[in-house]
Specification:
Strand content: under 5%
Strand order of the largest sheet: 2-1-3-6-7
Number of helices: 31
Length: 646
């Protein structure tokens, strides 16, 4: 507020002496000041005055800057269409005047706008353009900012590993150039990434580092944000008292600095905490305060969240009518601002209400609408397979809700198709995109193996056969000599000795799988084959036998991200800390180096329920076995615990 007073004095002087450039700059700075306070209507008013003067005096730099600031203001308001329009006008002008620095910033702003829209592919494209320019002109601050934005985009996609990688690059640059503000933001972003990963203790560690720096440099906005993030982490840990304590600190700072957006968010977070505590009355009270502020500042986008939260709160008290009313308001806002992501979430929430109310046909309708929208967002990711899988894994509620309702309706077959559809989509996307050299097959090649009814069901439900040229692997099988694959022999690997495997801190990371050993023993009895288990199941022994058998069956730990298999380490090196991965992990490279003759490979790998199995990893290891010569590979696309595999 003090800064605003000085800027108004400067504006007055500029007007008195007829300094149009100074007057325009004052308007622009006042717009930025009001935007930082959350008064977006006033910010837009001042940025428009800046734009008007810049056009009058032919100040192209000023005109471009005003467009960029208007874009940021409209983005904060949730009017993303208008934000993109202004950012493109900014980009056009900075290109005309040859200002590479501001061109990079324009790309970054466009990336942020598309991220808010849910178009993560486009967001990443623009952030990469920003990064390239920043590197070209030696703009280290811009480079760091681009890394940070890329990290945020990958968080939205659920690719937390990549997000952490980019946020660490941002942190490294911020430290190099002495940018304490950027360093603090990088810590905060790393905290958010670990939060989404479910590592709340690590999230708290990073948010505390952000808080420390924000206090050191007097960044009140950053301090408030850090308190809010700490509250979120403690909320997820179930420490509601501590969460509320931090949310109140966030609220206090937001009020002190006049940050209306921050104040509204703090109210929303307090509502979430009281909802978890079961104090629904207080939760509704805070959600209404959040909504009131969003309306006051004209933040249409910000209205959507409290409407959705109010819908959830009224659902908790059993007021289905009000729950539906508020979720419909959230849906209306999402449609108005063009946010497909929020629209899909609103449909999913409505599906949940109708399901609990007993309105099963309406529940199916809304869950299906949600799935259609999430699938349309997924398609925007195009050939980026791992993005699609991560995105799908994050938004399972609509799929699980739909198959649950279908089961309740007695449509068990359809429910099964829905439950598997997401996995099938991920699998076919991944398989197709990695087959760069397609072979067009005659229709009879694959029609011969399926009855018409089976083929039609696969086509309509799973979409597995939209193109005849998806089956490059069929040509490989057809071209194999009849006697290529082994007709006898089996390699059965169960429960390798992994309990001594250690990480860099010397901690044991894997447990024995009691039922995996029983699994291969049962198969061994059927086939009259002795399985290799425990200490015998070394990587060396497995690689030695792989190429000489017709059947390969693994019942062992599998890596959720890569699909690679944990075997018994080299017994001579088992005491090494940490255990070297090449000693016990059967990697994709290892498999590809073996000339397989197996007709069937079964990967019955347990993930102990400790995390989501990633389809791109499963497909990677499955394709490795096929690429090495296996005729067929059977693999699960979901996490299985030890006993379930038996």
């Amino acid at each position: 507020e003090e800064a605003i007073e000085y800027l108004k004095l400067y504006l007055k002087k500029a007007k008195e002496v007829g300094d149009k450039h100074g007057e325009g700059n004052a308007y622009g700075n006042l717009g930025n000041a009001y935007q930082s306070l959350g008064d977006l209507k006033k910010a837009i008013e001042y940025h428009n005055l800046h734009l008007k003067i810049a056009k009058e005096v032919g100040d192209k730099h000023g005109e471009g800057g005003a467009y960029g600031n208007l874009g940021n203001a409209y983005q904060s308001l949730g009017d993303l269409k208008k934000a993109i329009e202004y950012h493109n006008l900014n980009l056009k002008i900075v290109k005309e005047v040859g200002d590479k620095h501001w061109e990079g910033n324009a790309y970054g702003n466009l990336g942020n706008a598309y991220q808010s829209l849910g178009d993560f592919k486009k967001a990443i494209e623009y952030h990469n353009l920003h990064l390239k320019i920043a590197k070209d002109i030696g703009d280290k601050h811009g480079e760091g900012g681009a890394y940070g934005n890329l990290g945020n985009a990958y968080i939205s996609l659920g690719d937390f590993k990549k997000a952490i990688e980019y946020h660490n690059l941002h942190l490294k640059i911020a430290k190099e150039v002495g940018d304490k503000h950027g360093e603090g933001n990088a810590y905060g972003s790393l905290g958010n990434a670990y939060h989404r990963l479910g590592d709340f203790k690590k999230a708290i560690e990073y948010h505390n580092l952000h808080l420390k720096i924000a206090k050191e440099v007097g960044d009140k906005h950053g301090e408030g944000g850090a308190y809010g993030n700490l509250g979120n982490a403690y909320l997820r840990l179930g420490d509601f008292k501590k969460a509320i304590e931090y949310y109140n600190l966030n609220l206090k700072i937001a009020k002190e600095v006049g940050d209306k957006h921050g104040e509204g968010n703090a109210y929303g977070n307090l509502g979430n905490a009281y909802l978890r505590l079961g104090d629904f009355k207080k939760a509704i009270e805070y959600y209404n305060l959040n909504l009131k502020i969003a309306k006051e500042v004209g933040d249409k986008h910000g209205e959507g969240a409290p409407y959705g939260n109010l819908g959830n709160a009224y659902l908790c008290v059993g007021d289905f009518k009000k729950a539906i009313e508020y979720h419909n308001l959230a849906l209306k806002i999402a449609k108005e601002v063009g946010n497909k992501y929020l629209e899909a979430t609103a449909y999913s929430s409505l599906g949940c209400v109708f399901e609990l109310q007993g309105g099963l046909p309406k529940a199916v309708e809304h869950y299906q609408a949600s799935i259609n929208l999430f699938d349309s967002l997924r398609l925007l990711l195009k050939s980026k397979d791992e993005w699609k899988v991560n995105f799908r894994n994050q938004h399972q509620m609509a799929y699980t809700g739909l198959w649950r309702v279908l089961v309740e309706q007695g449509n068990v077959d359809e429910a099964l198709f829905v439950a598997e559809k997401g996995r099938a989509q991920a699998l076919t996307d991944l398989m197709e995109s990695k087959d760069e050299d397609f072979t067009v097959l005659k229709k009879k090649t694959f029609h011969q193996t399926l009855s018409f009814r089976q083929w039609k069901k696969l086509t309509s439900i799973f979409g597995l056969f939209p193109k005849e040229n998806k089956f490059a692997s069929l040509r490989l099988i057809a071209d194999c000599p009849d006697d290529y694959h082994k007709s006898s022999g089996a390699l059965l690997v169960g429960d390798p000795w992994v309990s001594e495997v250690t990480n860099s801190e010397g901690k044991k990371v894997l447990e024995q799988l009691e039922y995996a050993e029983k699994e291969v023993e049962m198969i061994g009895k059927i086939l009259n084959i002795t399985p290799i288990t425990g200490r015998q199941a070394t990587k060396r022994e497995v690689l030695k036998r792989l190429s000489s058998v017709s059947l390969v069956h693994f019942a062992a730990h599998g890596c959720p991200e890569t699909g690679e298999i944990a075997l018994t380490p080299d017994l001579d090196r088992i005491s090494t800390v940490p255990t070297e991965k090449e000693d016990y992990i059967l990697t994709i490279r290892d498999v590809l180096n073996v000339q397989l003759r197996a007709k069937l490979v079964v990967l019955s790998c347990c993930h102990s329920g400790r995390g989501e199995i990633k389809a791109e990893g499963v497909v990677g290891i499955a394709r490795a076995f096929m690429g090495a010569g296996a005729r067929s590979v059977v693999v699960s696309l979901w996490a299985i615990d030890d006993e379930a595999t038996l």
